[in-house]
Structures are given as structure tokens and as C-alpha cells.
## 1
Amino acid sequence: MKYRRFEELPVWNDAIELAAHVYALTARTEFNSQRSLKDQIERAAVSVSNNIAEGFERGTNNELLALLYIARGSAGEVRSMLSLLDRIPSFQQLISEIRSLKQKAEGCSRQLKAWAQSLQDSDFKGERHVNEKTKLAAQAVRERDEFMVELSAIMARKHAGS
């Protein structure tokens, strides 16, 4: 499936959900005395979805790939800070929420890695590089492939009848 908008991307939606849950966590009273930690984890969480969106909108696979790795780095940063919270005694009553968020962040990282790998394995350079000439060339390849499938079916029926 080809996505037309970043809002359709499953990984972007998971990243938005991660950020929303991080904000819900940092709204807890345990964060009142941890302003810098609260600010840093919120910024890292928002960075995941923002970098996915920016990369998607850039129009080239090279830029998208770079921003996917930045997003993945931010997801790792969120996991690192959640691991820190897991070890701070004043956050012990939030352990199950913290561990659940770590799993969400790890899920985003896995999706981003798989997407980045597929981009690295692709010959497609990105939407910015698509022009009338490349559209026509892609259409010709599709038509040739469809013709070959049809021809193979005809030949198979002919050989089956003989």
C-alpha cells in the first residue's frame, strides 16, 4: 500500500500515541520536581513523530532515510530515559506505565528500522524525483509485466489443450 500522507503511516500513529502517553505520564505529580527530565523526555517523544512527518514530506528517499534514523534515535532516547525512571525510587509506583511505554518506544524503533531497511534496498529515489518521463517508464514496465503474465496464461492454455 502506498501512503499519500504521513498521517496514514502506522509508525507515525504509533509515535503520536507514544508521545501522548509520555505526556500523560509526565503530567503526574512525581515529575513536579524533575522539570528537566520531564522536558527532555517530552521533547524526545515528540521528536519521533515529527521526524517521521518531516522525512515523509521532504520527497526524497535520502532525506526520508536520514530523518527516520533521527526518529529512531529519539525513540531510543525515550527508552533510555524511561530506563532511568525505572531506577529512580520516587518513580517506583509508575513502573508498569514506564515499562509499557518502553515497549511502545521499542515498537516504534523496530518499525523505523524495517522501513529504513526497505528504503535502502529500493531503487526508488522519492517523489521529488518523479516526473512525466519516470511515470511513463514505470507505466511501460507495468504494461510489459501484465502482457507477459497474459502471454504466459495463453501459452499455458495452448499447451494444456495439445
## 2
Amino acid sequence: MVKSIGLKKIKTAVFISGTGSNLKSLIKFSFLNKSPIKIDLIITNNIKAKGLKFAKIYKIKKKIYNFKNKSVSEKFILKDLKTNKIDLICLAGFMKILSKDFINNFKGKILNIHPSLLPKYKGLNTHMRVIKNNEKYSGCTVHFVNSRLDSGKIILQKKIKILKKDNSNSLKKKVLKLEHKIYPEAITKALTSL
């Protein structure tokens, strides 16, 4: 894994599919002196991703891939990552599953944030499933990405209590707030502990 050397920040790409609220929080984090990362590239599979506005606002290079042919898209993404000398990938609400080959090209250099306390509730519709099962707690997890869905080594986890009045929507909002807080912490932890 890549280490932050002195004040030189690690060139990072963020992969998004939606609103980009985690992207925005990571961009703000990247501007801090203590931050070990610099976001140089935003990649999405969704031309309508609202998060793309942050590329414009913060003048960050963006690339859109349709993923109609996954292996072709991934080949071009890898080329872009190489061209931009990217050393770290942060998945932030990226709704495509990356292939084993792709992951192996960036082994130990891909992080993901997931809106549940892994290993519980991997995959989609986590908040709905958590509420349905009357869980007392939920939260989010930042982990390294491996070839199995939401199964990589956990870097950081934070939990919150679920209130009786919570529904999947209110829980989603609370967990998202938590995500914005722990993703930067997890990145720092992952980069300093290696």
C-alpha cells in the first residue's frame, strides 16, 4: 500500500454514482493541511450523477463511463488512473461492482464506505433491512475492497442507536452524516498504519 511521504499528498480518485455527498466531504477534507490526499480525478458510471457538479465547482477532472461493457470501461479507467498517476481509489456511493482484475491492479489501494455495520447487511437496501429486522444499532463501515462484495478488511466502523421513531429514510440521513465524519478518519488511518 502507498504511504504519504512528508507533505506530498497522495493522488486520489473518487468513484461516484449519485449525489456525491461523500465526495464533497472528501474534497473539503483534502484541502486541509493534515489531509494525506489530493483528489485529482472523479469517475462515475452515471452521466446524471449530481455529484459531478463538485468536479466543476472545485475544478477537478472528471470522467464518465457507461459500463455497458464492463471490461472495456475498466480498461479505460485503468488507463486514466495511470495517466493521472492515481495511487488511491475511494469508492463513495459507486453502484458498480469492480472486477477481480481491476481490483488486483489496485490491490490494497481501494477503499469503500458502506452504510451498515459490516459484516451485517452487505449489498443494497441496507437501511430498509436494518429497520425490518428491528436492529438496535446501525452505522457505517470503511473497508478495503477485495473481490468479494463488502468483505474486505475493515478499517473503521462507527455505530448509532436506532430510535423507535426511525424509518429507513431517517436512518439513511443519520448514517450519511456519520459517513461524512468517518471516511476522512479512515483514510488517514489506512494511510498511516501501513
## 3
Amino acid sequence: MPTYQRFEDLPVWKEAANLYDEVNAFISGKPPGLSRSFSDQLERAALSVSNNIAEGFERGTTNELLAFLYIARGSAGEVRSMLCLMERKKEISNLRFQISNLKASAESCSRQIRAWADNLQNSDIKGQRHLNDSVKAREKRIKEAGEFQKMIIDKLPSDHPLRKK
């Protein structure tokens, strides 16, 4: 699993940034029947997805990251909800395909955020802020032990029960 140093490199952040770009382009077309406040809220919700991923990533602890990921996921849900409401308007029936694509992008963000959050909740990683020299040394020993164990198992006969087939 890759380790990311910058939020800009995260695939889920890139997806969220694309969602914002798509929503912004859609709103810029001034769809009929949408109030300015509705359009503004849709834009803010779409922007909130990538911003909360970034803020959580930069916080330095897994617990804070998780909290911001769930906020980001909530914002993706808000985008979808608003798009669902838009679909109900008769004035924009010719934009249903675009709206459907936007909903799919928001749902993709939501799924990716959920998968990442689930993965983080099931890990022992406490976050960058907690990586002192002692923790780094322990992680290095664990990694080296795993590599040594793999080397030993690789030297066993191919029919040995410890060898994976």
C-alpha cells in the first residue's frame, strides 16, 4: 500500500477535486430554475469534500483524519441530495444526464472515503504526529523481522506446510 506525503497525491482527494470542478462547471452554465443560494450551497458542499480530506490529512493523527473523512463523506452526501432535488425540477429535464454523472462522481468520492476510513479504523496507525524515534525504531524492527521470516520460509522445501502455494 503506497504511503502519501501530500494530500494532493491522494487518489480520493483528486477525485474530490474533480467533483468540485464538475459541479462548478455545471453551475457556471446557470441551470434554469435554480436559486443563487441553492447554487452557492451546492458549490460549497462540493468544495467541502476535498477541503475536509486535505484538512484531516494535514492534522497528523488518525483520529482527526477519520473525523474529517466522515465530514467529507457527509458533504459528498449533501451534494448527492441536492442533485436528487434538482432532478425533480421540470425546468431541467434536459440536464438529467449531466446531473446523473455528477451524482456518480459524488457517490464515487463517498465510496472511496468510506473504504479509506474503514481501513484506518482497523489499523494500529495513530498518525504522523505519533511517530517518534521509538515508534519508528519498532516499526523498522517489525519490518525487518517480517523480511527475515519471508527469507527463511522461501528456503524451505516447496512442499513444506509453511510455504504458501
